[in-house]
Every structure is written in C-alpha cells, then in structure tokens.
Amino acid sequence: MVRNGEISVADVKRILRRFWWIPLVSMLVLGSIGFGATRVLTKKYTSTTSVLVEMPAVSADYVPPVMNDDFNQRLASMKSQVLSSSRLQPVIEKFNLFADERSTVSMEELEGRLRKAVDVTLLTPMQGASVRQPPGFQVAVTFEDPQIAQKICAEMTSMFMKQNVEIKLGVAKDTTQFLGDQVDQAKAKLDEQDAKLAQFKQKNLGVLPEEVDRNLSMIATLNTQLETNNQAIARAQQDKSITESLLAQAEQNWSLAQTGQVNPETQEQQLASLQEQYNALLLRYTPEHPDVVKLRAQLEDLKRRIAEDPGTKGAMTPTQAKMHEPPQLLQYRNKIKQDDFSVADLTKRQGQIQQQIGVLQSRVQMSPMIEEQLKELMRSYQTAQEFYNDLLKKRANSSMATELETQQQSGNFRVLDPPSLPTEPSFPKLPIFLGGGVAAGLALALGLLYLLAAMDHAMYNERDVEIALKLPVLTMVPSLDPFGAKSAKNRNAGKFESAVLKA
Amino acid sequence: MSRIHEALKKAAQERHAQMAERSNGVAVDLTSEGLTHSVVPESLPLDPRTDAVNGRDRTLLRFEEFLKKCQRPAWNLPPGASVFAADRTDHVGAEKFRTLRSRLYQIQATRPLRKLLVTSSLPEEGKTFTVANLAQSIVRQPERRVLLIDADLRSSRLHRMFGAPEKPGLSDYLRGDADEFAVMQVGPQGNLCLIPGGDDVTNPSELLHSERMRQFLDKMAQVFDWVILDSPPALAVHDASMLADMCDGVMFVVRAGSTDFQLAEKASLEFREKNLLGVVLNRVDRHESYGTYYYGYSPEKAAPGEKGAQ
Lengths: 503, 310
Prior knowledge:
The complex is a heterodimer of chains A (503) and B (310).
Chain A (H helix, E strand, L loop, with lengths): L8 H10 L2 H20 L4 E9 L17 H12 L2 H10 L12 H11 E5 L13 E8 L2 H58 L8 H48 L4 H21 L5 H19 L9 H6 L3 H82 L4 E5 L12 H26 L6 H7 L4 E6 L14 H10 L1
Antiparallel strand pairs in A: 1-3, 1-4, 2-3
Helix pairs in contact in A: 2-12, 3-6, 4-5, 6-11, 7-8, 7-11, 8-9
Chain B lengths: L1 H24 L1 E2 L3 H5 L11 H7 L6 E2 H7 L22 H17 L6 E6 L6 H13 L6 E5 L19 H6 L4 H4 L1 E2 L5 E4 L8 H5 L2 H13 L2 E5 L8 H8 L2 E7 L5 H9 L6 E9 L26
Parallel strand pairs in B: 3-7, 3-8, 4-6, 4-7, 8-9
Antiparallel strand pairs in B: 1-2, 5-6
Helix pairs in contact in B: 1-3, 5-6
C-alpha cells in the first residue's frame, strides 16, 4: 500500500512477488523490438579521422603567437564556416550525393542532411597533462555508403586544415597591418608632443628648472658687484669733498695774496690740515692706495713750497697775485669734476645691477610653476614615446609571426590517421538497440509496477492497517493452505476452499 | 529442586480444585419459561454462577442440565475447516488464533467483555472463518464455554464451518417459532454451542434490532464465557451497527491484499464509538507475517490443557 508516494521495501518485495512476470515480459518484448529494429532500419557507416594540433615550431618565448584564442572557439568558428551552405553544396555536387532526391528535395534540406552527417568532436587531453587545451579533434562522417563516407570525411578534413591556415594567416596579416597603422598614428602623436615640448622650452628660456641654479649664482655675483659699486660711489664722494675743501683753502689763500695780506699761518694751517687728512686715510687704506698716494704728493708739494719760500710768507705782491692764478686751483676743480663724473657713472651702474638682480629674482620665483607645466608636458611625451615603442615591438613580433605562419603553411594541423573505411555499420548497433529495448522494458515495467502499487489500496500487513485505519491489529492470520491437511488429496478440497473463502 | 517441584504441584492442585468447583457450581436462570418469555429477574446478579454455587435460587438450572435440553445434532466438520484440526500439518494459523485469544483476554482484564461482534466492511473477508476458529481456540482451554451466533440472517454460513444443520436458528427464535433450546446446538465437547442462522426471513434488521435479541444476548452472556456473533458486512447492511450496540466489543476483520483501505476506514468509522477492539488481518501472505517463526511447532509441543481437545 503506497502512502503519499512513499513506497517501502516491503511494498517493493510484495509487488515483485505478485508481478514478477511483468518486468520479464516487458524486457523481452521491447528487447525483441530493439532486435527487430536492427534488422529493419537502414544501415549507416561512419568514417572517422583524427587531426592533431601540433605545437608551434618556434617557441612562444621567441615569437609570440598572433592567435591566443581558445581552440574550442576557433574550432567552432571553423566548423560553422566549413559546414556552411556555400561549402557543402560543392561537396554534394562533387560526390554526387543524394542523386535520387535532388529533383524532389530542396538543396537546403540536402545540405542540412549532410551537415547532420558530419560530427566534429574535440579529443580529450590526457589526464595529468599540464596543457588543458585539447590535443586535437575528430571528424566523423556517417553515410549509407562506407566509401562515400570515407571520401566525405577526407574532404571535410582537408577543408578544416585549409580553413585553419586561412584563418591564421588572415589574422596575422590583419594584425600586422593594424599594428602598422597604429605605429604611424603613435609616431605622429609623439612628434606633436616633441614639438610642444621644444616650443615650451624656447618660450620659457631662463626660467626652466635646470637654470635655477645658474640664476641664483648670477644673483650672488650681481650682489657682490653692487656692493663694490656702492663702495666706489662712497669713495668718490669722499674724494670730492676732500678736493672741495682743498679748493676752498686754496682759493682763500689766493684771494689774500691778491689783496697783499700775507697770511703766513695759512700755509702752516694748510699743511696741518693735509697732514691730518693723510693720517686719517692711512687708518683706512694702505700706503699704496691711490688716494693716500695723491694726498701724500700734495703734502710734500706744500712742504716743499714752504721750505723754498719761508721769507716770502705773505710777501707776494698783489700785482703778482693778480697776474698768476695758481694751477693748483685748476687741478682741484678738474678733480671735482672728475669725481662728479665718477659718482654719476657709478650710480648709473648701481641702477643697472639692481635691475638685473630683480629680473633674475623674478625668474627664480616663476620656476616652480614652469617646472610643473614642464613635467606635464614631459609625462605626455613619455607616454606617447612608450606607446610608440611598445607598438614598434608588437609590430615586429607580428611581422615575425606572420612570416612564421607563412613558412609553416598548414603545419599546425596534422592528420594522425587517414579517414577510415568502415566495415561495420555504426547504425543500428545491435548491443545498443537490444540493451535499449531491455532498458526501456525495464523502465516501462518499473513504471507499471509503481502504477499498480499506487492503485493498490489494499492492506497487507500490520503497518498498513495501523496507518490506514489507526487501529491495533489483534492478530494476523496467514493465508492457510486448505490442502494442508494430511489426507487433503482424498478430500473435497475445492468445496472446502470455496466455503472458507466465502465465509 | 524438590521443594520447587512440590510448590508447583501444590499450586496446580489448588488451581484444579478451583476450576472443578466453578464448573460444578455454575447455574443460571435458564428455565424454559424465563427464556421463552424473555424475562430476566431483576434480582439476577451480575455473575449468576456465584449465586448458583450458593444454591439460593432453586429455579436456576445447572449448566449441564441446560445443555441436556439443547440439541445435539451430529456435526460433520468439513476437512480443514479448523486450523486446530488434528490432521493439519500447518499450525501457524492455530498459533495466530491463540494470539488473538490472548489479546482478547488481556482486554477482558481491563473491561467487561463477553459479547463480541465480528464484522467486516465487505463480504468474504473471513468473518465466519475467524469466528469459528476463535471459538475453537477458546474452548480448547478447560472450562471455557463459547456460544456462537450466526447473526447474518441474510446469508448464514457459520453452520457450514461445523457441518451443522442450518435450521432451526436465530431467525426462528427471534420470530418466536422456536425456543432457545430448539435453536441451540451443542458441540461434541459440550462447551461450544452454535445457533445457526435459521430460516430465511424478509425482515432481518427488525428481528436483530428487537428487544428479544438484546435480552437473549444478555442472558447468554451470563451463561457463557464468550458470546461471539458472526454479523453481516458493515457496508452492505446496517445490521452490524445495530448489533454492535448490544455487544461489549467489536472486532473488525480485514482481508489482506483485498480490502480497500478507504472502504475499511469508512466501515470502521461506524464502530469507532462502539467499543471497536481492533482488527484481525486475515489471509496475510506468509512473507508479510512472522509466521515462519512458528515453523516446526507441533501439537506435541502444545500446552497440556490443549492436547487432544479437538
């Protein structure tokens, strides 16, 4: 008794005891049908050939292959191309296939039949092989005539090999062409970047980062020059003031001389004043300094004049004084003019130096900004250059791979075994049909038995009663053999059985 | 060992004495008048046999005297009708009925149980076979009295199991055409009585549902240890349900491998509220039961009390 689709082992045993003949009959009948089918169905023969995918002659480390795609995908692509209508129709015409049906059946249907007759399967790699890629593939052609099957198989195999070569060469050439175009474009971009960089450098000459150090050293030099110039200006101004004081003293003396008054103390005072200036200069400069030398000459000249004319101190007549203006005054005046020129010239030079320093300092301040712009330009340039170099390398590899493919021709595919000439039909196979019939019979019998079990609402044992009626079983009386009596043969057993059963 | 042996011997003697006393003292109001008029004295105790031992009522007849008034036709048991037949080589069936007997005694120990109705959902499930063999399993015990009543007035078959006459029977008694002594047949052993179905009647339901039937069952329950009724199938007619109201318990017979569980469930629902004791699964395939454990069991190995009883 099956409850909720659950069937127990006891149920299975009971059903098998009662209907043990159903599986036998079912398997016998369907097995016979399978056997008969092998005799009735049209026989078909299968010709097979194995194609090996050879490893490349040159290692991929030296010449990287152009095609790194999955072999399964490539084979699928080749299969769809080889089994296309444009390829199959010539095969049908070449081997005069389906000659009797061409007038009644469309070419598309005949191509479909031939397509179904061709089976391409991948060979499985050996266990433990490091490369997971299939080692090759197998082409099987099933046809009613074994010789035709063999011919079609050979034709299909050659089509696969040819298609493979075409695909690989086409891909290699296309790759090379594509990479060449890319290299040209990359070169143009690189040139453009190069021009931009040169223009930028030219535009920012003196402000470029590599010129910062030079600008800083120039600033230091100019500062030194500026300081020296300042000192020269100060010295010229000092000389000028000394000369002016000397000129004033000389002019006073000369004017006294014109009026007849002698001022004997004047030369003495002049000498004392010069001596005092001389001593002051010695404190600052060496005796070889031009100012020191010059003042010493004046001092010696004044001493010499006092020594030469001690009695005529103040004894010069006014006529003499009027007639002769001392040349010393002229010298003093010339000296003052020269000092003025020197100060003006030095002052002008000071302004130039300060302007140069300002220009250099502004360049140094602009340098970080220019450096940033230059870096950006350099990055773009380097990227373009790397891309260009990479493309150059790839184009070289692609060219080598193309050359390799051209030299190898169809070396990638190799036919291991030529298409076989089948002697035994591949369809219908007796073991498969017989086994399938028996298996189908067994499955049918199992289904029938399950159906019988599901439809059986009877109770057989204590479990069934307790599940169905939820009542305790007081006892289970076995099916008694009415002929269990010792002298059953001599008794009217049939009468007894009917009486008991009816009761 | 000798002490144990003596103790066991003494216990057996005491048990034998109690049984003998009980057998000789059993009596009940079985006068012809009392039964034919279906009058039960109000003072009738629950266990009249106790009063009979004390001899309070002189109108009570001893059981042996009661049996003397009953019919004693010759029973011609058909071959193999009983699983307890001495010539049977297969004793598994007998052992199963002994099991059933033990179960019933266990139930009886917990509740009043004398009148037992045996029914099923459909005909030919083994009711009559079960009734006949259950009765024989009981009477094989000493001092056990069983009355079998064929309550299937539409198709009575119980008498065939014993090779007994069909008439007069229960229908004749219920119609008043015969008294209880005329319809009751005593078996060869004297402790198994049978009331067959009797003449065909047109109103079996009315007869079975009568007060006369109820009183008769009550009286017989006072006389016999077991009153077992073979009833019609429950789904076919309503008789079994009515009879169940008059009995202490109902036993449901199911034929293994045949009875639809839905029908059995429907029929058993009729008796859910009426002391349904359990199910007797009949005609069980030997592979489904534990009967093989009893292979090799022989009558020689049976209990001493049962040896040679039938």
